[in-house]
Amino acid sequence: xxxxxxxxxxxxxxxxxxxxxxxxxxxxxxxxxxxxxxxxxxxxxxxxxxxxxxxxxxxxxxxxxxxxxxxxxxxxxxxxxxxxxxxxxxxxxxxxxxxxxxxxxxxxxxxxxxxxxxxxxxxxxxxxxxxxxxxxxxxxxxxxxxxxxxxxxxxxxxxxxxxxxxxxxxxxxxxxxxxxxxxxxxxxxxxxxxxxxxxxxxxxxxxxxxxxxxxxxxxxxxxxxxxxxxxxxxxxxxxxxxxxx
Length: 245
Description:
Elements: H1 4-11, H2 16-21, H3 23-35, H4 61-77, E1 82-85, H5 89-95, E2 101-105, E3 116-120, E4 133-139, H6 158-169, E5 170-182, E6 186-188, E7 192-194, H7 197-203, E8 208-215, E9 221-222, E10 236-243
Parallel strand pairs: 1-2, 1-4, 2-3, 4-5
Antiparallel strand pairs: 5-10, 6-7, 8-9, 8-10
């Protein structure tokens, strides 16, 4: 019998309709494998992957481009240490290959890598001295603060308070790399918020915006430009590079 977990993966999946349409091909390939001399297949070992036969490699545009954007900035700047708050751990792990990274997260990372130190921290109360961090990132995190999704307390002012805390710790001349969903402002409870692109600049005053780019609704990387260029988006990803005075 096909293991229950694998059955559930097929049924309770956003791609389930496409997967079911491709099930006949899976059965044909199963039979063809045996005829081709591949050996007998056991049903208990079956692991149907039915949605991967596509012409191009799929990717999440927000996460791919924001990680590439941050990595390129750090490769140019080469800070002595980089602090990240809550960003995608795949990106953080790669960054630690060429710059020491302190990874702060409400749900701390338990992986062990040279160049990477992970510590539990609350974005509203960072365990960092004021104006002490030369290089700081927080990618696709601010929009979640205070919605309770990750076990944090409910707080309607979460993004405002979190942004002030990020601005507090950046050293003079230091950089903050920030990304958030931008476009039509709204709360999509309890997943995330979408912020007006120009409002994000005000959240981290007195830091100065030196670069803005964005991933548009079609998944294309745009900019540099002014934040207003993304104002008409529905669910874009704003990429902000700030510098502290």
